[in-house]
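One-letter codes give the sequence; backbone shape is given numerically. An example follows:

. . .
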Amino acid sequence: MTETARSAASSAVVVARLRAAGCVFAEDEAQILVAAAADPVALERLVQRRVAGEPLEYITGSVEFGDLQVSVIPGVFVPRQRSLLLVEIAVELALPAATIVDMCCGSGALGSVLATRLPAATIVAADIDPVAADCARVNLAGRGQVHLGDLFDALPHELGRHIDVVVCNAPYVPTAAIATMPPEAREHEPQATLDGGVDGLDLLRRVAVSAPRWLARPSHLVMEVGASQAHTACDIFTAAGFAASIRRDDDRGAIAVVGVLD
C-alpha cells in the first residue's frame, strides 16, 4: 500500500469514528486531526480526545476565525463564527484610528481580527479570568493591550471618555438552558463563560449601565445576544441612554444589539 493510500485509509477510519461519536462535520474534523498529528500514535490520542467530547479547538490549540488562526487553550471560551458579526459592525462604525475595547474578551479573538482589519486602531481587551487574559495576550501580542479585571474596572483610568467602540460577547445563555447545550460546551467550557443568569442578560445589563461613563461622544456599544433576548436587550440599552437597534446575520445565526451614544 502506498503512503497516499495508507493516509486515505487512516482518514476514512477517523471519519467513521468521529461520525459514530456524533460529530456533525466528521470529514472536516478528520482532516484537521490528521494534519495536526505527527504520527499514528499521536493521531490516536487526538481522536480519542475528540470522541470523548473534548472541543476540537482545545485539541488542536487553535481555531480559524476571521481569516486568522486564533490560539485557544482549555479553560477559555471557544470563539463561535457567529461572533464575527460584532467585528463586521465595529469595522463599519469605527474610524480608522478609533479606540476599540474587546470586553469579556476570552481568547481575544474579536480584538485580534479587529487589529488586522483596522491596523491604525488602538485595541484594548479585558477579561475577569486570568487564563483567558493570558490566552488573549498571546493572540494580541504586539497588536493590543490586555487587562485583567471585572468589566470596565479592568481598564486604565485614562481611557475614560475616550473609547469609541466597545464590542462585547458576554455570556448570554440563561442558567436553566445550559443543560440543553451540546456536551462539548457544557462539559468542557467553563460555566462562567456561558451562564448569563436567569434571563441570560445579567452581564449585558452591567455593561450597558457602566459603558456611558467610559465612552466618547459619539460612540457605540455592540453586544451579541440570543434571538429571544434582542428586544429586551434593546430596552436595556435604551434605559442606559443609548439609541438601540438590532442587527442580524441569518447565514451565521447571529444577532447583535447596537447602541449609539451621542
Summary: The mean pLDDT is 95. The chain has two domains: 3-52, 81-261.
